[in-house]
């Protein structure tokens, strides 16, 4: 056992670099203490094979996202610029849209050019169709058409007249009637004709019908021929008007065949549909619409490969969407209403996503896997993609997926996906483990100072004094839970520095002092410690009954930690044990009442094994013992109270009282070796607060496992009272060492004869167990004789 000295609990001066203020420290240019993660992510970024996407694993608050962003951006700067992505009308398929990739900056330029030429094309077309030359040629066609038509009609009339009929063309078609001497015969005259003459007209009428049928065929052919010539004239005129415009674009973009093909088809489309374009405002809008460019991704301002961090990875934010507008109650969409997502912006580069966020939204993880497996980026609304809406909709042409996904998440999420998703291990082959702590070495502390200096620079904070810097290192150790480790929860370090700077501002100081850092820590604790204060009041009022003076049999002050997410604090708890003759064995009241967690139940069984092996080698454990956490109504979990429970049981059996001025924490194994536990600082401070309130007398203190000495990072108030001898901390290796402190009696070592020294704690335990056994069995095991019973 060891009573710890003040000098053993403070940080040695050689831990810290020599400096007056942070102004003398060079800021770091990158993250510190993450070489393993650095190497892993560089490997993941450098390898281009399929499936080598990256998953960064680490606790939140350690700067994972900032680390990844900084490194990926630095890596991406040296990569080539990626293409722009545009969508244009698909002239071959009205239910599709054509995707075209162009060099960075070309998309914006092309959009500007197409907008400009839409006005030019309309003006050119209007001008050519209003020209004298066009009107002259059109009139020639009309005159030619009229002449041929009139000739056909005249020929019909002459032939019909020879047959005795007059033929006329009306708006409803041809009509004909019998004629005599070139004049039509009235109905009355026709009735007066002899039957032979009537029969003649009837026979000749059939010939006239045949002539009219032939004439109609000729007229339709003439009309069609005229229409074709008129269309050819319009096509020629429109081609003459717009070909030069399109040829210039085709020459400019000749190295991009897909765009050239689109321009050629667009030119032909205008020529073939010139009737609904020429000379109207609707035509003007139509030209403008068809020449529109949907610039989905513009990389003109991006240096190197794109790096996108999507903070809100919903389905449309990540994969894009197709928008609709309502026209007279009908939903309408086209290529201009296609919207890209983060995956389009990151294509050719890197997309960073928070793993927890992506798993929150329906269908996103499944869609991301499909994209990576097929290596195609397809824009489709979620209702269409998963068959919720069978309506026919626009289907934009997919593009090749050429990006690397970097997911950032906790170890729990990583192992959950790895275990239950077969595709995960195929798609995310690079695991980057982000450390949450680094060793306390002079090199690492120096780098930590550099990080602090960079925080001051980036956040425009005041310089920090040497003592303030040392206090931040102390707080970092406090976060890590060890004087041998520095915490990599950089977010909390930055928050502390910002708040300390604010405290210095309030007192108009130019330099942040240690007092400012302490004030910031105190202010934070005041904001989150309401529950702890309520418990402390209950302890002080003795509503939670904890003794801090005197001695009691079968009663020990244990120590617990309460975690509230943003704040943890320690509280003492009374652990009692009662022994009795009756049911043999140790009864854990918590377990019997279903208030014991699995780890605590295991700890109780472990201490039963220890007690049995130590005290029941020669005689059986013939005693009933019950143990309980008094005034604890929640589930008890963990094994850190097993040392205290063991001491309480030994005290209850031996009837030796335990000092109540000392609290104890520690886990034991079946050999009675005390093992390290968590939350040692909170536990020590929890008992100290109560003792401080009731008055320290030099007898108060805490027993902790020796293995936890390195974890003690205590506040100045406790260290001061330890230095003055008002409060004590003992470090023990075994149960016997703890017994000697709490009982002030020797524990007693087992002799070669299998007995413990008279007057030792272990002697009294075995004596009591033997006594109970003899009473139960009616035997005197010390003399080997059977006692006589009364009749």
Q: List segments where confidence is low: pLDDT < 50 over at least 5 consecutive residues.
A: 783-791
What about the largest sheet?
8 strands, mixed
- The shape is elongated
- Helices, by number, come to 28
Structural class of the secondary structure composition?
Answer: alpha/beta
Question: What is the rounded Rg?
Answer: 47 Å
Give the tally of structural domains.
4
CATH architecture identity of the largest domain: 2-Layer Sandwich
Kindly estimate the percentage of residues that lie in beta strands according to DSSP. Answer: 15-25%
What is the strand arrangement across the widest sheet? 1-32-31-28-23-24-26-25
Name of the CATH first level of the largest domain: Alpha Beta
Query: Helix amount, in percent?
Result: 40-55%
Alpha carbon gap, first and last residue? 54 Å
CATH topology label of the largest domain: Ribosomal Protein S5, domain 2
Q: Output mean pLDDT.
A: 90
Describe the structure in your own words:
This protein has 791 residues and is an alpha/beta fold. The chain has four domains: 35-82 and 302-435, Rossmann fold (3-Layer(aba) Sandwich); 125-286, Four Helix Bundle (Hemerythrin (Met), subunit A) (Up-down Bundle), CATH 1.20.120; 439-528, Helicase, Ruva Protein, domain 3 (Orthogonal Bundle); 535-780, Ribosomal Protein S5, domain 2. The chain has 28 helices and 34 strands. The protein has an eight-stranded mixed sheet, with helices on both faces. Strands 9-14-18-2-19 form a five-stranded parallel sheet. A four-stranded mixed sheet has the order 8-3-4-16, with helices on one face. α26 (716-723) links the parallel β31 and β32. The two termini are 54 Å apart.
């Amino acid at each position: 056992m060891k009573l710890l000295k003040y000098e053993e609990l403070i940080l040695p001066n050689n831990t810290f670099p020599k400096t007056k203020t942070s102004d003398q420290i060079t800021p770091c240019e990158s993250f510190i203490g993450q070489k393993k993660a650095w190497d892993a992510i560089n490997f993941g970024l450098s390898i281009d094979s399929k499936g080598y996407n990256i998953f960064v694993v680490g606790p939140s608050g350690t700067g994972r996202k900032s680390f990844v962003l900084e490194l990926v951006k630095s890596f991406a700067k040296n990569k080539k610029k990626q293409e722009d992505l545009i969508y244009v009308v698909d002239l071959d398929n009205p239910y599709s849209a054509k995707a075209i990739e162009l060099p960075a900056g070309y998309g914006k330029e092309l959009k500007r050019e197409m907008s400009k030429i839409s006005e030019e094309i309309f003006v050119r077309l209007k001008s050519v169709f209003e020209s004298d030359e066009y009107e002259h040629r059109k009139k020639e066609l009309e005159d030619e058409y009229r002449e041929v038509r009139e000739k056909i009609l005249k020929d019909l009339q002459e032939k019909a007249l020879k047959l005795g009929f007059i033929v006329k063309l009306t708006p409803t078609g041809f009509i004909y009637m019998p004629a005599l001497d070139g004049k039509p015969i009235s109905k009355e005259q026709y009735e007066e004709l002899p039957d032979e003459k009537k029969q003649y007209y009837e026979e000749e009428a059939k010939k006239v019908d045949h002539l009219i049928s032939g004439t109609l065929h000729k007229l339709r052919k003439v009309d069609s021929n005229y229409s074709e010539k008129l269309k050819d004239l319009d096509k020629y005129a429109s081609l003459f008007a717009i070909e030069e415009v399109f040829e210039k674009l085709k020459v400019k973009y000749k190295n991009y065949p897909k765009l050239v093909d689109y321009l050629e088809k667009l030119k032909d489309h205008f020529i073939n549909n010139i009737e609904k374009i020429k000379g109207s405002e609707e035509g003007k809008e139509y030209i403008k619409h068809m020449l529109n460019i949907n610039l989905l991704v513009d990389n003109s301002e991006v240096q190197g490969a794109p790096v996108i961090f999507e903070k809100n990875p919903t389905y449309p934010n990540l994969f894009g969407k197709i928008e609709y507008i309502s026209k007279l109650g009908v939903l309408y969409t086209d290529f201009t209403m296609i919207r890209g997502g983060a995956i389009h912006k990151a294509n050719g580069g890197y997309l960073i996503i928070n793993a927890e966020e992506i798993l929150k939204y329906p269908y996103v993880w499944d869609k991301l896997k499909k994209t990576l497996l097929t290596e195609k980026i397809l824009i489709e609304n979620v209702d269409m993609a998963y068959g919720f809406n069978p309506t026919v909709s626009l289907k934009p042409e997919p593009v090749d997926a050429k990006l690397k996904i970097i997911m950032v998440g906790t170890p729990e999420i990583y192992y959950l996906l790895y275990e239950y998703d077969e595709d995960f291990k195929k798609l995310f082959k690079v695991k980057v483990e982000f450390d949450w702590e680094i060793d306390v070495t002079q090199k690492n502390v120096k780098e930590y100072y550099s990080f602090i200096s960079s925080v001051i620079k980036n956040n425009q904070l005041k310089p920090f004094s040497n003592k303030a810097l040392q206090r931040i290192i102390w707080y970092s150790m406090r976060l890590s839970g060890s004087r041998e480790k520095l915490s990599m929860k950089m977010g909390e370090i930055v928050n502390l520095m910002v708040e300390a700077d604010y405290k210095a501002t309030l007192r108009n100081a130019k330099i942040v002092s240690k007092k400012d850092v302490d004030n910031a820590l105190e202010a934070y604790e005041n904001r989150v410690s309401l529950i702890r204060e309520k418990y402390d009041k209950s302890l002080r009022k003795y509503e939670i009954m904890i003794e801090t003076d005197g001695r009691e049999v079968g009663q020990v002050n244990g120590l617990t930690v309460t975690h509230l997410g943003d704040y943890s604090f320690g509280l003492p708890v009374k652990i009692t044990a009662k022994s009795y003759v009756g049911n043999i064995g140790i009864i854990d009241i918590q377990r019997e009442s279903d208030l014991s967690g699995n780890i605590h139940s295991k700890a109780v069984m472990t201490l039963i094994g220890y007690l049995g092996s130590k005290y029941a080698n020669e005689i059986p454990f013939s005693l009933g013992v019950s143990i309980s956490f008094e005034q604890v109504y929640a589930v008890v979990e963990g094994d850190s109270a097993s040392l205290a429970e063991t001491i309480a049981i030994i005290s209850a059996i031996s009837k030796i009282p335990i000092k109540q001025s000392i609290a104890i924490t520690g886990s034991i194994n079946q050999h009675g070796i005390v093992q390290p536990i968590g939350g040692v600082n909170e536990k020590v401070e929890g008992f100290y607060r109560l003792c401080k309130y009731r008055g320290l007398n030099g007898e108060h203190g805490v027993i902790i496992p020796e293995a936890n000495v390195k974890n003690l990072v205590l506040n100045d108030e406790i260290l001061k009272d330890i230095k003055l001898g008002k409060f004590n901390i003992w470090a023990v290796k075994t149960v016997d060492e703890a017994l000697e402190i709490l009982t002030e009696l020797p524990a007693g070592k087992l002799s070669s004869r299998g007995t413990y020294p008279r007057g030792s704690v272990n002697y009294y335990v075995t004596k009591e167990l033997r006594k109970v056994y003899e009473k139960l069995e009616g035997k005197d095991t010390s003399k080997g004789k059977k006692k006589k019973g009364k009749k």
